[in-house]
Design a protein that fits this description.
This protein is of the alpha+beta class and 398 residues long. The chain folds into 3 domains: 77 residues, Beta Barrel (OB fold (Dihydrolipoamide Acetyltransferase, E2P)); 61 residues, Dihydrolipoamide Transferase (Irregular); 219 residues, Chloramphenicol Acetyltransferase (2-Layer Sandwich). The protein is 33% helix and 26% strand. The radius of gyration is 30 Å and the shape is extended.
Length: 398
């Protein structure tokens, strides 16, 4: 029985994907639920598995191909046996292929050039033996030589110096996810009136709290107490007080959201992704840490789904894990703001008239000035700073 394996539904508003990786070839046997192909959309990576045991009789796609929902990926014979080609048979096939290629190779261009193309070739140092003529009987025309000159100029313009010809390069096609990242970031810059305001926070209190309770916390909840849960809680408190930071623009309307689905920007093997921590305002510190940990694992393994990546109202990006001291994050549309965390670094600070060494972190809030005023942005960031420097406020809800 022949079974058609097609591109499955890719999620809401997603109609195309590319073939990221093939795990099977024509003639290979598979068992039910075995991975055949990996699809990559501009949001997630999806796996297509064998619906039954059998043999891939005809693979219709190659790695890098673009496909749409419903396109045929492969045909398989249920319960069939794998086709094994002997070495002698392979050699015959290769010989036949070579013979066929020789038959279809176009004739070498007639190098008896007319004066015009001959002159152009000489002036531009073009070897006409490498040009396939488009004229009668394969004759090289003036247009063929001009095209060769243009092509040669393009190649030369890419060389930094005469020695750069020997330098290794590699051309890699952008993944759909990377293309989508580029598109959305550029869209954000072209659409929003982005400004960034900065502040710095003394992390002494949070670090002391973590040090005091980290073992008890991990033993009770089965998860480590990190910094991100404090930032999520602090941001939610500030978002409730400054609702414009949690809003978005829809045409000529402003949409204020009374829920707090927080996007957590993380790096993955496929690129930057922003999975969403749902109903963050209803979670305690341990639930936030567990939620972020689970999303991080799914991002690392390429298991994020469309719902995991859509609907955030506000985003937090932690460039500090990579050593970033200061940056200006770009808003993730249609959101109106994003908070950038950075590296904790000891610096001399004046505390009650004395110079003290403190673990300091720069915070950056990029915001859409069309909806958020400067006063609101600064107030939001100051509120986050106050809570982090006195985390007991989280317990007392003040």
């Amino acid at each position: 029985m022949t079974i058609e394996i097609k591109v499955p539904a890719l999620g809401e508003s997603v109609s195309e994907a590319s073939i990221a990786k093939l795990y099977k070839k024509s003639g290979e046997s598979v068992v039910a639920d075995e991975l055949i192909v990996e699809l990559e959309t501009d949001k997630v990576t999806l796996e297509v598995n064998a619906p039954a045991s059998g043999v891939i009789s005809d693979l219709k796609v190659n790695e890098g191909d673009n496909v749409k929902v419903g396109d045929l990926i492969a045909l398989m014979q249920e319960g069939g046996a794998a086709t094994v080609v002997s070495s002698d048979k392979k050699e015959d096939l290769n010989n036949n292929q070579s013979a066929q290629e020789q038959k279809t190779t176009p004739a070498v261009a007639n190098q008896s050039l007319s004066p015009a193309p001959k002159k152009i070739a000489a002036e531009n140092n073009i070897d006409t033996t490498n040009i396939s003529g488009s004229g009668k009987d394969g004759r090289v025309t003036k247009g063929d030589v001009l095209q060769a000159v243009e092509s040669n100029s393009s190649v030369e313009s890419e060389l930094v110096s005469s020695q750069s010809e020997s330098k290794p390069t590699e051309r890699v096609r952008m993944s759909r996810l990377r293309q989508k990242i580029a598109e959305r970031l550029k869209e954000s810059q072209n659409t929003a009136a982005i400004l960034t305001t900065f502040n710095e926070v003394d992390m002494s209190a949070v670090m002391e709290l973590r040090k005091q309770y980290k073992e008890v916390f991990e033993k009770k909840h089965g998860i480590k107490l990190g910094f991100m849960s404090f930032f999520v809680k602090a941001c939610i408190t500030a978002l409730k007080e400054i609702p414009a930071v949690n809003a978005e623009i829809d045409g000529t309307d402003l949409i204020y959201k009374n829920f707090y689905d927080i996007g957590i920007a993380v790096g993955s093997p496929q690129g930057l992704v922003v999975p969403v921590l749902r109903d963050a305002e209803k979670r305690n510190l341990s639930e936030i840490e567990k939620g972020i940990f689970d999303l991080g694992i799914k991002a690392r393994d390429g298991k994020l789904t469309i719902p995991d990546l859509t609907g955030a109202t506000f985003t937090i990006s932690n460039g500090g894990v990579y050593g970033s001291l200061l940056s200006t994050p770009i808003i993730n549309p249609p959101q109106s703001a994003i908070l950038g965390m950075h590296k904790i670094q000891e610096r001399p600070m004046v505390v009650k008239g004395e110079i003290k060494v403190r673990p300091m972190m720069y915070l950056a809030l990029s915001y859409d000035h069309r909806i958020i005023d400067g006063k609101e942005a600064v107030t939001f960031l100051v509120r986050v700073k106050e809570i982090l420097e006195d985390p007991q406020r989280l317990v007392l809800d003040i």
